[in-house]
Amino acid sequence: MASGAKPEGNMLWGGRFTGKYNESIYFDRALYKQDILGSIAFARANAKAGIISQDEFQQIEAGLRKVQAEWDTDAFVIVPGVDEDIHTANERRLGEIIGKHVAGKLHTGRSRNEQVVCDMRMWLRDELRAIEGHLVSLLRVVAARAEKEIDYVMPGYTHLQRAQPIRWSHWLLSHGLAFASDLERLREVVKRVNRNPLGCGALAGNPFNLDRDMITEELGFDGLLWNSMGAVADRDFVTESLQWGAMLMQHMSRWAEDLIIYSTSEFGFVRLADAYSTGSSLMPQKKNPDSLELLRGRSASAFGDMATLMMAQKGLPSTYNKDLQESVEPMLRQVKTVSDSIQIANGVLATLVTNPAKMRAALDPFMLATDVADYLVRKGVPFRETHHISGRCVAESEQTGIPMNELSYEQMKAIDARFDEDIADAFDYEVSVERRSAKGGTSKSSVLEQIEVLTAMLG
Ligand code: ARG
């Protein structure tokens, strides 16, 4: 049989598949702590199974704690070309500390295939729980602001055109409740992340009757993964988490976009704190909403990481394939982006200065055209007709240049005889928002109720 051509000397790897292209240590070192805790739990279970002695277990545990201390203090020295990934690096170092004979027993009945998912699941669980805390803090800021600034009335927009008056707090809660749904989803996702794959071996299971329940408990998992082949193949827990993060960031980008618009001189509803904006290197008067633009921009990479991860899994055959190593980096990167973003959003919102006078000044009597129509509805006129009549009031105002709320009673009466003097009451922004008192609307009572609903979801 003819052998293939010899690789050139300057190629990335030689006859065997080694070297940089194969390595994951430069990113999976982030999982060092989980890797060590997983190894200790695994060794303890092996000691219970009688496959290593108690004394050997104690040496392994003590050695691994030393390895962890090295990572903790940045003293761990990665050996290039030897430490392929975090699992091999930790085991190599353990051997140097306690001797290869005992260290060589750590991996008994274990595979890196189960080890890497164990590390990932523990890491992700902890990160998602921290993110849950950040999200709750952000929502507390939303709730507090919504309560404090409930009297501010501003234009609500559709198509970015002035539509109807709303409370500023109603706007706050429109985004807040979307984030609260994200919170609910997150709590659901964590349940499926926090399952124990350890004791599944390379694919077929553990041959030494390992007590997997004991490992589950020690590592703080909520339960087991019940099929060893599935356990090493599965990255659904990462997919679901990154899909979650992509959607949260999509919500974040829309929230940020509103605030970017509201912070322009043309709107002036809000002013960002200096800590969350930057000046221009050229134009001294400028204050750019960089923080919000980055939140909007990072939603792109959050989506991209999710897409990378999903593509890496497409069409893989059963169980572990090295493609799955590509699931680690998108996870590490996107989860950090999401976590940072929520904390930045919190800072932006907590320090934002609102300008209720500007909000009010942006209101326009035409935004009450629906209220004029509703006025006649209350007098028994069908809405299709009232909509038309109100439209004629708008036209009259446009033609005469007289603001709609300043049309005389006679002018209104001439358009439709059913207008009475109390039509003047329809031209009041407060009255307009207060009329929207059905659950979910912009009246004060409805907004206060939303704050209660949101707060109850925070737990
Ligand atoms: N570094 C690998 C990963 O992240 C660990 C698993 C390696 N397993 C294997 N059979 N080569 O996926």
Automatic annotation (TrEMBL):
Entries under PANTHER family matching the protein: ARGININOSUCCINATE LYASE (PTHR43814)
Residue ranges constituting the Argininosuccinate lyase C-terminal domain according to the UniProt record: 366-434
GO biological process: L-arginine biosynthetic process via ornithine
Coiled coil location: none
Protein name: argininosuccinate lyase
Pathway per the UniProt entry: Amino-acid biosynthesis; L-arginine biosynthesis; L-arginine from L-ornithine and carbamoyl phosphate: step 3/3
Keywords of this entry: Lyase
Cellular component terms (Gene Ontology): cytosol
Reaction catalysis annotation: 2-(N(omega)-L-arginino)succinate = fumarate + L-arginine
HAMAP family linked: Arg_succ_lyase (MF_00006)
EC number(s) per entry: 4.3.2.1
Stretches assigned to the Fumarate lyase N-terminal domain: 17-304
Family, as annotated: Belongs to the lyase 1 family. Argininosuccinate lyase subfamily.
InterPro entries named among the record's database cross-references: Arg_succ_lyase_C, Argininosuccinate_lyase, Fumarase/histidase_N, Fumarate_lyase_CS, Fumarate_lyase_fam, Fumarate_lyase_N, L-Aspartase-like
Origin species: Tolypocladium paradoxum
